[in-house]
Amino acid sequence: MRLPAAAVLSLGLALAATARADDAVVLKWNLSAGDKFYAKSTQNIEQTIEVMGQKVPQKIKAVMVTRYEVLAVENGATVVKMTYTAVEMDTAGLPGAGAVAERFKNGSLTATMDKDFAVTKLDGYDKLIDQLSEGDPAQRKIFAAMIPEATGRMMFTQVFNGVPGRKVSTGGTWAKTDKVPVAGLGEMTCKSKFTLASVSGGVAKIEQTADLTFQIGGGGPLPFKITKADLKVDDFAGTVLFDATAGRLKEAKTTMRMSGTMTIAAGGQEHEAKLEQKATTTVVVTDKNPVVD
């Protein structure tokens, strides 16, 4: 018996819908008290700042290894302790950066996160700033401006970010908004859209796009401040690899290009500046420490 064309088409659509449903996967962290893992974050920044006709190229590389220990999981809250195990900075033209990076070692922060892994409480921030400033009140003000508490919270969101905590089918999307402090100079608002691109071997590949806007800050104790800024993100792309079987991040990578103008006030004078910047950040999560002490 030959099936009518309409029946064949209906059967095909039904099978396709079933296949799409079978592609659905739960994208959610799975943590228990006592769990421990490491994250290695590598950031490369290439930028050129033009001030008063002079172009100043800069290259910055920062490598940071942090250990995450799950202290408690109860009543919808997860408590995680993060400890810096290694920090290296290569900043051409900025002597002493390596010595400052060394001060981070063994410093720690503890975050309490809700069911969506948003940080609701951060402990240890003041102690960390004291460790970095080594008892110098003037340095403490500078470190507090360069590394506000919001930056400490970002040490957790950059690892636990990227998944919605629910079942998603291939092609499914979700959104998230983060506010990222920019070294005491202002704040970047990042409105991200995530799309589940594929699932292979239990690992979900997630693609990220984002709209970013920069808002200037007060500058605080820094010797200069930005009074005006017209900075635009020309390109942003991100990829997240999430182990859906283990319920844990494997890798996250973002690439961003930004350009524009800003007015820098220093020494009672204002100077117009142009900025072109490319930044690439990669975070890799492993069970073992990727750096041998």
Q: What is the topology?
A:
Blueprint: H1 5-22, E1 25-27, E2 36-51, E3 54-74, E4 77-91, H2 97-102, E5 108-113, E6 119-123, H3 125-133, H4 137-146, H5 149-160, E7 166-168, E8 173-181, E9 186-200, E10 203-216, E11 225-243, E12 248-266, E13 269-286
Helix pairs in contact: 3-4
How many independent structural domains?
1
Work out the oligomeric state of the chains in this entry: single chain
Tell me what portion of residues adopts beta-strand conformation.
over 45%
The CA-CA distance between the termini, in Å, is 73 Å
Quick structural summary:
The protein has 293 residues and is an alpha+beta fold. Helices cover 19% and strands 56% of the residues.
What key phrases describe this protein's structure?
single chain; 293 residues; alpha+beta; Lipovitellin-phosvitin complex, beta-sheet shell regions; eleven-stranded antiparallel sheet; two-stranded antiparallel sheet; 5 helices; globular
Report on the architecture of this protein.
This protein has 293 residues and is an alpha+beta fold. It has a single domain (26-285), classed as Roll (Lipovitellin-phosvitin complex, beta-sheet shell regions). Helices cover 19% and strands 56% of the residues. The chain has helices spanning 5-22, 97-102, 125-133, 137-146, 149-160, and strands at residues 25-27, 36-51, 54-74, 77-91, 108-113, 119-123, 166-168, 173-181, 186-200, 203-216, 225-243, 248-266, 269-286. The strands form two sheets. The protein has an eleven-stranded antiparallel beta sheet. Strands 1-7 form a two-stranded antiparallel sheet. The longest helix has 18 residues, at 5-22. It starts with a helix and ends in a 7-residue tail after the last strand.
